[in-house]
Amino acid sequence: MSKEWTNEAAIRQWESVPRAALEASAVDGDFAKRHLVNPVLLRMLGEVAGRRVLDAGSGDGYLSRMLAARGARVVGVEPAASMLGFAREKEADLRQGVRYVRADLARLPDLGGPFDAVVCSMVLMAVPDWRSAMRGCVASLRPGGLFVFAIVHPAFEGLWRSWRAHGEYRTRRYLAEYEVEQTYASDFHRPVSAYLNELAALGCRLRELAEPGLDPGLAARAEAESPGISGYVDLPNFLIAAAEAPA
Q1: Into which CATH architecture does domain 7-244 fall?
Q2: By its UniProt entry, which CDD domains does this protein fall under (predicted)?
Q3: pLDDT in tens, 46-103
């Protein structure tokens, strides 16, 4: 990467997300999460009622709230104070029983015992010390517990922008690690093999890998307002994995 990044520096960026953006995604995330990420995450997690679930990198808390509404006993961990404060405000209103903890995923505190499942949605690609974060997620599971994570697909990070400009996807770099600037905070590109090899090194068994595509009818309806969204029909902008912790 072009400069030395730390988790602390990345967290400071996430503190800048405006309240309006948090409110806009408070129910079920943005368009992409609503139609591409959430359905796969929830299917992979399966029945969560009565299960203890860690939402690792819970952000504004929308996924924690969705899981709690399905009967899960949820702990949300988020390092950015502004986003955590927003999530706690929603919990005070809804009283779903979600417990929010401020912590860096790379240095998780004692969260009260092992979890049946850990979900880490759209987080790891934004964490400089991502290996420690993944290790913490897996270590938080009971033996054989389920770890589900979603990231921007490393092979198609600029899909929307490229499709809008060229009507096709173009990229020049894949194998290198580098910063990817976003609206509020940076992501960091790493090849798919980095994530999967780390899962293997942690002793996890890969259960499923998904690369969801957008429904063509939905894409056609959204194209006028969001030019380039049709690229999501045949190319995946997200990579979602489910793995079992060592037994």
Answers
A1: 3-Layer(aba) Sandwich (3.40)
A2: AdoMet_MTases
A3: 999 999 999 999 999 999 999 999 999 999 999 999 999 999 999 999 999 999 999 9
